[in-house]
Design goal:
It contains five helices and no strands. The protein has one domain. The protein is mainly alpha-helical. The chain is flat and about 45 Å long.
């Protein structure tokens, strides 16, 4: 717990409060729609966070926009995609397989 608090404090100084808050909350909220267990949700949230960072940095480079807000917008887009009926269908499909 102390290590996590230290990592968040250091990261806030480097990239800012908005980015850290959004990368803690948005991927977890998006992953909740797909996960069957908390451990599964952790892996999916990490993957969504990495994808949002890559997509946001690429958008920042191509659109010449600030990187922090671009990453947040990419994460928001992934969250909105998780609200589609396709996400519910994928979760039901996973649940019937296991």
């Amino acid at each position: 717990m102390l290590l996590m608090a230290a990592a968040i404090a250091i990261a806030m100084k480097i990239v800012g409060v908005l980015l850290i808050t959004s990368l803690l909350i948005i991927p977890a909220a998006a992953a909740r729609r797909f996960a069957l267990s908390p451990a599964h949700m952790l892996g999916i949230a990490a993957l969504i966070g990495v994808m949002a960072t890559v997509v946001g940095l690429f958008a920042s480079l191509t659109l010449d926009s600030p990187s922090g807000p671009s990453i947040v917008v990419a994460a928001l887009g992934m969250f909105l995609l998780s609200l589609t009926p396709l996400a519910t269908w994928l979760k039901l499909r996973q649940h019937t397989r296991s």
